[in-house]
Amino acid sequence: MNSIPSLNVPSILRTYGLRPKKSLGQNFLVDDSSLRRVVEAAEISVGEVVLEIGAGLGGLTRYLATAAGRVIAVELDNKLIPPLREVLANFKNVEIIHGDILDINPNQLFSNLQLPKSKYCVVANIPYYITSAIIRHLLEAEIKPQRIVLTVQQEVAIRICAEPGKLSLLALSVQVFGEPKVVAKIPAGAFYPAPKVDSALVRIELFPEPLIPQTKIPDFFALAKAGFGQKRKTLRNSLSSGMAWPKEKAVQILENANIDPQRRAETLTIEEWHALVNHR
Q1: Domain boundaries of the chain, sorted by first residue
Q2: For labelling alongside 83, which of 1, 76, 240, 272 has CA 20 to 30 A away?
Q3: d(C-alpha 125, C-alpha 210), whole Å
Q4: Between these two residues, 87 and 25, which has the higher pLDDT value?
Q5: Read out DSSP for the chain?
Q6: Do domains 9-206 and 214-279 have the same CATH topology?
Q7: Residue 244: CB partners within 8 Å, gap ≥ 6?
Q8: Distance CA 64, CA 36 (A)
C-alpha cells in the first residue's frame, strides 16, 4: 500500500468552522495503522469497486482509492462535502455522492459501471443506530456486495457474531446473508473525537444466496421483529403480540415447525427461523 500522509482532522474542521456532530455519530477514524487495517480486511482486488458509506473527511477514502479501481464515497453531512472534495482532489478514481445511503438505491450507484453482480465491496465506519438498517438495505438490493467491512462499537461487533442462545435481531439480520467475523479491535484513541468505548472491525463474507429464500425475507423479518420485540417473553406470547395472532395460532405454528412455544427468540437457530417462516 502506497505511503499516504496523515490527515490532520482537527485542523481541517477548524479551517471550515466545523465540529463533529454527535447526532450523526461522527467519530472520524484518524489512526493510520487502523486505517490500513481496515483496507487490508477488505481484501480489495485490482480494479474492484468499493462503496464507502460515511466518507467523512476522506481519511479512509484515500487509502481505499490507492487499492481499488474505483471508490464511490457517500456522505450524509452536506457541510463535510467541501473539505471532503478538497482532501480527495488528487484522487481521480473517487466519486463523491452527497446523500443518505438509506435513501439511495445501490443499483443506481453502479448502473453506469456495467458492474457484474456481486463484484463490489462495502467499507463503512458507521454509528450503531443505523448498522442493521444499512445491512438490510444493501443486502436486499438487486446488486449485492461480495463482502462488507464495518467499524462498529466493540459490543455491537460481538453481538453481530453471536451464536444461538445469545442471538439478537441484529445478529440474525447479518447471519442470514453472510458469515461475520471480528478481525481486529480498534481502540477509542484511534478516533477523533475519541468515543467512550472501543470499536472493532467486522468482516462479513456474503453467501451466494441468503440462508432463507429471498422471497421469504420480508416474512422472516416480520417474525423476527415480533419475536425479539418482547425478549423476556416466550415465543408463544411475543409472536402472539407482535403478529397480532391469537395465542392458539402462535402455538400451532410453532409446534408445526417443531419449536417449543416456551422458548425465547434468542435461542432459535437460523434453520429454526426458516422452519417457522415456512409454517406461518
Answers
A1: 9-206, 214-279
A2: 1
A3: 24
A4: 87
A5: ----PPP-HHHHHHHTT----GGGT--EE--HHHHHHHHHHHTPPTT-EEEEE--TTSHHHHHHHHHSSEEEEEE--GGGHHHHHHHTTT-TTEEEEES-GGGS-HHHHHTTTTPPTT-EEEEEE--GGGHHHHHHHHHTSSS--SEEEEEEEHHHHHHHT--TTS--HHHHHHHTTEEEEEEEEE-GGGEESPPSS-EEEEEEEEPSS-SS-GGGHHHHHHHHHHHHHTTTS-HHHHHHHHTT--HHHHHHHHHHTT--TTS-GGG--HHHHHHHHHH-
A6: no
A7: none
A8: 9
Are 56 and 28 in contact by the 8 Å Cβ rule? The answer is yes
CA angle 80, 81, 85 (to 5 degrees): 120
The residue with cell 469497486 is 49
Q: pLDDT by residue (tens digit) across 39-74?
A: 999 999 888 999 999 999 999 999 999 999 999 999
What CATH class has 214-279? mainly alpha
- Rounded CA-CA distance 241/246 in Å is 8
Question: Mean pLDDT throughout 111-130?
Answer: 76
